[in-house]
Design goal:
The complex is a heterodimer of chains A (375) and B (314).
Chain A (H helix, E strand, L loop, with lengths): L2 H4 L5 E5 L6 H14 L3 E6 L4 H6 L10 E2 L15 E6 L2 H12 L3 H8 L2 H9 L3 H16 L4 E5 L7 H4 L1 H9 L2 H7 L4 H6 L3 H12 L1 H15 L2 H16 L3 E7 L3 H16 L4 E9 L11 H12 L1 H32 L5 E4 L8 H11 L8
Parallel strand pairs in A: 1-5, 1-6, 2-4, 2-5, 6-7, 7-8
Antiparallel strand pairs in A: 3-4
Helix pairs in contact in A: 2-18, 4-5, 4-7, 9-14, 12-13, 15-17, 16-17
Chain B lengths: L12 E6 L5 H14 L4 E5 L5 H5 L11 E4 L2 E5 L2 H13 L2 H9 L2 H8 L3 H12 L15 E5 L3 H18 L3 H14 L4 E8 L2 H18 L5 E7 L6 H8 L6 H30 L3 E6 L8 H15 L1
Parallel strand pairs in B: 1-5, 1-6, 2-4, 2-5, 6-7, 7-8
Antiparallel strand pairs in B: 3-4
Helix pairs in contact in B: 1-12, 3-4, 3-6, 6-7, 6-8, 7-8, 7-9, 9-11
The chains are: A alpha/beta (375), B alpha/beta (314).
Organism (chain A): Svornostia abyssi
Protein name (chain A): ArsA family ATPase
Pfam family, one (chain A): ArsA_ATPase
Chain lengths: 375, 314
């Protein structure tokens, strides 16, 4: 089934997969194609390569979608009937916006935003990309300004970090772990039969009492936002499971990304999240009409025309191409079985990197199979 | 005080990072093999729950956090942040009952799972612990060198930043002291070294140059070496390319040969251009590794690459 048909009626397309498999390029090409057909599409990327960003006019990182100038597509075989919007995610900014939105009043907002712990955590800390990406997606969906949102997920060795990010972060902000110890008569006191001050003392010996006091202040300040966070986490979960949301899994034919794709597919199934299809990037194929196993013959045949030395080098190159085609065909067969997408989209290895509108148009043509896969 | 050491394998930490899918595990293992061969007690640390190294050696069933001997002088561990935190806290409190209260209450797991950056902080702490003479957990052996198969660049650098961030949050007390000790270790050129793995493509090259800049600004440390992976052999000169392109015949096979050779030549051209761009853009020493066609590299392949890795970082 054609990818465009699979995505019919979808409002949110989440592009997942392990790092380095071409997620950003795939997301951009897909969004461009959907926009070309007349939809208003926003693609949210995390960290696109600079030239790709430049080709889309994304010099500014301002955390809001920007309309890609339609003239950029002219002369590249893309007839843009809709609108392509693109944005680069700014994790800290998204976090700050969220605090602003959820704060019941200006005082609470300022208290949180100026809190030392908040500033350290929201700016510098690893792992906040997963949360902010999904928060931004939710925000854009709620505002409803777009027909389709395409999210390029953060590079993560564990794609699951992304799925449960809202839960984990809300859990932390609720201060469950520490609240257990810090609340007088809280769980710690009840379960362990010890006073809070004892437990506080134990923790303080490790962390320093200053830190505990600062944390208390931090969590108190956040207290007013908690309902908002919980509601947000529920909303995000609902959005991820919505019939109008779909996950595409992108992989390359190499073993580790393939394993990760299979693993992620299993997790989607477990979590009952919608799966839209598999895209296998960077697949090596033999040119049409070439049979595998012909390299030695070719060396013999060409020896007269090219001389033995050059013919030998040609044969070695053909042999490499055959090995790669074999390797990739085996990977695709395994993926088809394990991911239960009998008909994955296969995008061939391109001779050059994709970093401009022409490249995106080429990838898109492969995505929609409007050109021959062997090209 | 350690002498001023230039060789990356003679330090305590070799941190291997780079864009996703470029071959960090391969290079980390090749470097660890070289260090072990040179007689250094070397441990290769995987993070994020990953356990690829035992599999390459045909081992299964290692528990997270377990330090597994692979061969003489070479161990591996998949860092378990929860276990690391338990060891750290136990050593701080020096009281079993108190530690047990905390362990049983699941507070470690909750903390590591939930607090932003906690997982990274404890992971890098547990990595530091591996080369300490007195380990957090009494009785565990000390290693000469830890090679880290680190997360992809963005996450990899973020992880290096967490000790300083948490130190600044805690300011005083044992946690702050510990965090600052780790931060100093990471910034000490005699003890810690940074290596990137890249491919000769636009995005990985751009990201490597960006990584070098970020390391300088956040840690004040240079990126010392880059291994560029999957380099194709330069088989055909311009005259030979033309000769093949001019092969007569319309049958699919001849057409296919022309295409395969032209495509190979084009990929080589793109790779070499990106390689030059990288060499111009970085102060690090740049080495290359050949493209090996396999679904995934086997131990033999990686042993074969080890001398080339050593030549670049030694």
């Amino acid at each position: 089934m054609e990818l465009g048909d699979r995505l019919a009626g979808k409002r949110v397309v989440i592009v997942a997969g392990s790092g380095g498999v071409g997620k950003t390029t795939t997301s951009a090409a897909l969004a461009m194609g959907l926009a070309a057909r007349g939809q208003r599409v926003a693609v949210v990327t995390i960290d696109p390569a600079k030239r790709l960003a430049t080709s889309l006019g994304l010099e500014v990182l301002d955390n809001e979608p920007r309309l890609v100038d339609p003239s950029r597509f002219a002369g590249h075989g893309v007839e843009m009937q809709g609108e392509l919007w693109a944005m680069m995610l700014d994790a800290k900014r998204t976090f700050d916006d969220l605090i602003e939105r959820l704060s019941p009043d200006a005082k609470t907002r300022d208290e949180v935003l100026s809190n030392r712990i908040y500033q350290e955590l929201s700016g510098a800390v690893a792992g906040s990309q997963e949360f902010t990406a999904i928060a931004k997606l939710y925000e854009l969906d709620r505002e409803g300004g777009f027909d389709v949102l395409v999210l390029d997920t953060p590079p993560s060795r564990n794609a699951l970090d992304f799925l449960d990010a809202p839960d984990r972060l809300t859990g932390f902000l609720e201060g469950r772990a520490l609240r257990v110890f810090l609340t007088p008569g809280g769980l710690a006191a009840k379960v362990m039969g010890r006073g809070t001050s004892v437990v506080f003392g134990v923790l303080g010996r490790v962390t320093g009492v200053d830190l505990l006091n600062d944390l208390s202040t931090f969590f108190r300040a956040l207290g007013g936002l908690l309902d908002g966070f919980r509601e947000r986490a529920r909303g995000v979960k609902k959005l991820l499971a919505d019939p109008a949301t779909t996950f595409l899994i992108v992989t390359s034919p190499e073993r580790e990304p393939v394993e990760e794709a299979i693993f992620f597919r299993g997790k989607l199934r477990e979590a009952r999240m919608p799966f839209g299809g598999l895209i296998v990037n960077r697949v090596h194929t033999l040119p049409e009409g070439m049979q595998a196993g012909g390299a030695d013959e070719i060396a013999d045949e060409l020896a007269d025309a090219l001389g033995a030395k050059l013919a030998g080098k040609v044969a070695a190159t053909v042999r490499d191409a055959e090995l790669l085609a074999d390797r990739d065909a085996a990977a695709i067969a395994r993926l088809g079985r394990e991911v239960d997408d009998p008909d994955p989209v296969v995008i061939p290895e391109l001779d050059d990197d994709v970093h401009d509108v022409d490249g995106l148009a080429l990838v898109h043509a492969h995505l929609t199979r409007s050109i021959d896969g062997a090209a | 005080m350690l002498p001023d050491m230039r060789d990356l394998l003679d330090r305590q930490l070799l941190y291997v990072t780079g864009k996703g899918g470029v071959g960090k595990t391969t290079v980390a293992l090749a470097a660890a093999l070289a260090a072990a061969q040179r007689g250094r007690r070397t441990i290769l640390a995987e993070v994020g729950g990953q356990q690829r190294i035992p599999r390459i050696f045909g081992r299964t069933g290692a528990a997270p956090g377990e330090e597994v001997k692979l061969r003489d002088g070479l161990w591996t561990v998949s860092i378990d942040p929860v276990l690391g935190l338990e060891h750290f806290v136990a050593q701080q409190l020096r009281s079993r009952p108190l530690t047990q209260i905390l362990t049983r209450s699941n507070v470690f797991k909750t903390f590591v799972d939930a607090a932003p950056g906690a997982r990274e902080l404890v992971t890098i702490g547990a990595i530091w612990d591996l080369v300490q003479e007195r380990r957090w957990h009494k009785g565990l052996p000390s290693y000469d060198l830890v090679v880290v198969d680190a997360p992809a660049s963005g996450h990899g650098v973020a992880m290096l930043r967490t000790p300083k961030t948490f130190g600044d949050i805690a300011r005083v007390g044992p946690l702050a002291q510990q965090a600052y000790r780790i931060a100093e270790w990471l910034q000490d050129g005699r003890r810690a070294g940074y290596l990137a793995v890249a491919l000769a493509q636009e995005m990985p090259v751009a990201e490597t140059i960006e990584l070098e800049r970020t390391l300088r600004t956040t840690l004040g440390r240079p990126l010392e070496a880059v291994l560029v992976n999957q380099i194709l052999p330069r088989r055909f000169n311009a005259a030979e390319q033309e000769e093949v392109a001019a092969l007569p015949g319309d049958e699919p096979r001849v057409h296919g040969v022309r295409r395969i050779v032209a495509s190979h030549a084009e990929r080589v051209r793109v790779q070499q251009a990106q390689l030059s761009k990288l060499r111009r853009g970085t102060d690090a020493s740049v080495g290359t590794l050949p493209f090996i066609i396999r679904p995934a590299l086997e131990l033999d392949d990686i042993e074969g690459l080890s001398p080339r890795v050593q030549a670049t970082i030694g």
